[in-house]
Please model this.
Amino acid sequence: MSVHVNASVPPSGDGCVECDEVSGWWVHLRRCAECGHIGCCDSSPSQHASAHATATGHTIIRTFEPGESWFWNFETEDYYDGPTLAAPEHHPLDQSTPGPAERVPSDWQRRIH
Model:
């Protein structure tokens, strides 16, 4: 895997692409710094962000959570000093975490990794 960041690519949407396709839910969201794919974090039941990195070789993600700005490199398993990415930098402020609220089970804390 090699490091590629494309700061001009916008995020793919407001939520995890794969979770939205199956009416799933997530704990936190991560944004691929190369293609903008939004996936769920490794604490989420489906761990789509890391699955995307493995499948595509896109090793750098950025948090897609309000108030956070860190990047992570799956290849080195360390933080990465990345550039400012195309807006928006996080999911909508009215979107719950975990989310989306209407799909999060009442026992969600027992279902996370």
Notes: The chain has a mean pLDDT of 96. The CA atoms of residues 16 and 111 lie 17 Å apart. The chain has two helices and five strands.
